[in-house]
Design goal:
The protein is mainly alpha-helical and about 190 residues long. It is about 70% helix and about 5% strand. It has a two-stranded antiparallel sheet.
């Protein structure tokens, strides 16, 4: 069978094409990409570099980088070792996969690709924010930050995605915080 026909058959059946001794894939497998994203999220939440995780597992950082990008598939045994390393169940790597697939199917193939970089940026920001938030020990400060985030999200939803007035939100949050502290039984 000529190479062109083999490539067409491979596309039809979703298999890889052998070319000069190496497999060349038409595209990345969405499950591999998703697992890689979850791996990256766990690593970032732990505050570890790719080198830190890779050396702990006997990998090069390039291998870990390929896992995180979905270029290389993570084997079952490696996934188990990663779960042990991060002290999470293996299922964590697949949580949210079905919801993502459903959302992509509803949005259509073309829309999903354009939103990927925006989703990745939001995910990275959320991970960084979560890590910083974990390091805040004062419960009053954590409560104020939580309240500010809630108000910002509610205001953004109420405005149909437009940017709310930050100054006004801060003033009302400040008044509420003072009122709670001044009440009997309120936080001091």
């Amino acid at each position: 069978m000529p190479h062109g026909q083999a490539a067409a058959a491979a596309r039809q059946w979703g298999t890889a094409v052998k070319k000069r001794g190496r497999e060349k894939k038409e595209g990345l497998n969405e499950v591999d990409v998703f697992v890689g994203q979850r791996l990256r999220e766990l690593r970032m939440l732990a505050g570890l570099s790719q080198s830190d995780v890779a050396s702990a597992l006997g990998l090069t950082f390039q291998q870990l980088q390929k896992y995180e990008r979905g270029f290389n598939r993570v084997s079952a045994s490696r996934l188990y070792k990663l779960a042990q390393f991060f002290r999470v169940p293996v299922s964590v790597f697949f949580e949210g996969l079905e919801q993502q697939r459903t959302a992509q199917a509803e949005a259509g193939e073309g829309a999903a690709g354009g939103e990927e970089s925006e989703t990745t940026l939001r995910s990275r920001e959320a991970l960084m924010l979560a890590r910083y938030f974990q390091n805040i020990r004062d419960p009053q400060i954590r409560g104020a930050i939580r309240e500010l985030a809630e108000r910002m999200a509610e205001a953004g939803e109420a405005l149909g995605g437009q940017q709310p007035d930050m100054g006004e939100l801060m003033r009302t949050a400040g008044r509420r915080g003072r009122a709670a502290r001044e009440q009997p039984g309120g936080r001091a």
